[in-house]
């Protein structure tokens, strides 16, 4: 498979993409004028297609939409979602009122949860839950579209890579579980602004992403390492100033509203290992790891990720790109973390796209994710019907398979990224001499 064809026309260069296009008429023709309509056309097309994936997720959760999100039905039908649960909270007040999301969610996610709640009827019945779920689905579609457009804008010569964000099968199961895509969208737009040489604005968006989900700290670290390598200290300082400003504003706003935005992080410190983490396997085996010990392991995981990132970004023999570096660091953080929820998969989609991941590798990872998604609910439901539930040993097997899948895509990202003509996120280095796929792509422009 020619690298150039794979990047510019996936239906010609990758068999999974070619097979998928059969439902819309087959692969693009040999003499088609590829790229004539520009990246904005591709971004618009993929954004519209993403809504179909979210609609399939609504269908996947159809049982809960019809009968409610109560346990154990929502578990056995694998249709549980955090979204309708928020509809039961009190209206008015602030996200940090009694029962508000501010006590368990980062600032911006808590605020989004609260805002949507204000548009739902009081009482928290099934009607209110349905309305909250519907509003949440619309917001999530828009956030995925925003992530898709931002990804395509970074890969202007190869915009179809954004299909890894818009058309990933994991959206069918995980997109509507929570508002995690808020952090994904903010982080992706932040990377796009960095790539457009707007470091202050990029920092503001990345800081806002951290206030939605903690994982964008990994992306910030990867960008910083590459910027230091490229001697872009001035741009890096401006970006970090933007990050700091966004964090301070969000924390200050929470305090002004009478809340304590540090509550979720204190709660995390004292929480025992949760579903999906490798440390939780000790709990399944009957030897649970103490909460504080698990917290220490998670912090060590961050330290290992940073040290490995510094080594990889400083190698003189190979010019490390931001996306595979961030993906590798993120996988280390996830596998050493205290929990790894079923919706974690949406975090990595822009990084898969920006690493030019091959669809074969993407689909293998997605298959492991979807299998784990189903098996998790069957395991969680075990107290209601042990004979019907997933045994602990089988659940542990799927946790391990999922971990291997994450290691696999991180490993594959380094090879696939070599096919790119340039780093989509890197913005402050001297252009390299085009060779191989890069030269071929440049000749087509």
From TrEMBL:
Q: Which organism is it from?
A: Flexivirga caeni
Q: Which Pfam families match?
A: PIG-U
Name of the molecule in the record = DUF2029 domain-containing protein
Keywords attached to this Swiss-Prot or TrEMBL record, sorted alphabetically, are:
Membrane, Transmembrane, Transmembrane helix
- TM spans (from-to): 39-59, 131-153, 165-194, 200-228, 235-257, 291-313, 325-350, 362-381, 393-414
């Amino acid at each position: 498979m020619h690298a150039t064809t794979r990047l510019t026309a996936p239906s010609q260069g990758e068999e999974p993409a070619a097979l998928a296009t059969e439902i819309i008429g087959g692969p693009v023709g040999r003499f088609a004028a590829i790229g004539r309509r520009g990246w904005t056309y591709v971004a618009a097309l993929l954004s519209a297609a993403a809504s179909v994936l979210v609609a399939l997720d609504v269908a996947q959760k159809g049982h809960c939409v019809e009968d409610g999100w109560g346990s154990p039905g929502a578990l056995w039908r694998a249709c549980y979602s955090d979204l309708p649960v928020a509809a039961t909270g009190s209206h008015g007040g602030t996200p940090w009122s009694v029962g508000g999301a501010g006590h368990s969610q980062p600032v911006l996610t808590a605020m989004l949860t609260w805002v949507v709640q204000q548009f739902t009827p009081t009482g928290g019945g099934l009607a209110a839950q349905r309305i909250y779920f519907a509003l949440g689905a619309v917001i999530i579609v828009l956030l995925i579209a925003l992530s898709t457009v931002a990804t395509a804008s970074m890969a202007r010569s190869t915009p179809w890579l954004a299909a890894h964000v818009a058309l990933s099968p994991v959206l069918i199961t995980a997109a509507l579980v929570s508002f995690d895509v808020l952090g994904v969208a903010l982080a992706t737009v932040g990377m796009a602004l960095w790539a457009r040489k707007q470091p202050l604005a990029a920092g503001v968006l990345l800081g806002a992403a951290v206030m939605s989900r903690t994982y964008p700290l990994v992306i910030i670290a990867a960008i910083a390492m590459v910027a230091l390598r490229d001697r872009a200290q001035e741009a890096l300082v401006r970006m970090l100033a933007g990050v700091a400003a966004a964090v301070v504003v969000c924390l200050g706003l929470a305090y002004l509203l009478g809340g304590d935005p540090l509550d979720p992080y204190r709660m995390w410190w004292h929480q025992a290992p949760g579903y999906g983490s490798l440390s939780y396997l000790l709990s399944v085996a009957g030897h649970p790891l103490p909460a504080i010990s698990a917290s220490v392991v998670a912090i060590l995981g961050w330290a290992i990720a940073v040290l490995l990132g510094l080594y990889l970004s400083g190698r003189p023999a190979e010019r490390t790109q931001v996306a595979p570096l961030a993906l590798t660091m993120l996988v280390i953080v996830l596998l050493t973390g205290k929990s790894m929820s079923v919706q974690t998969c949406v975090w990595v989609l822009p990084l898969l796209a920006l690493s030019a991941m091959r669809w074969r590798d993407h689909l293998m990872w997605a298959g492991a994710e979807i299998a784990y998604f189903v098996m998790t609910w069957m395991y969680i439901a075990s107290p209601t019907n042990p004979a019907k539930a997933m045994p602990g040993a089988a659940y542990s097997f799927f946790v391990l398979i999922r971990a291997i899948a994450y290691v696999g895509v991180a490993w594959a990202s380094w090879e696939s990224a070599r096919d790119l003509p340039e780093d989509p996120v890197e913005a402050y280095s001297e252009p390299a001499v085009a060779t191989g796929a890069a030269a071929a792509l440049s000749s087509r422009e």
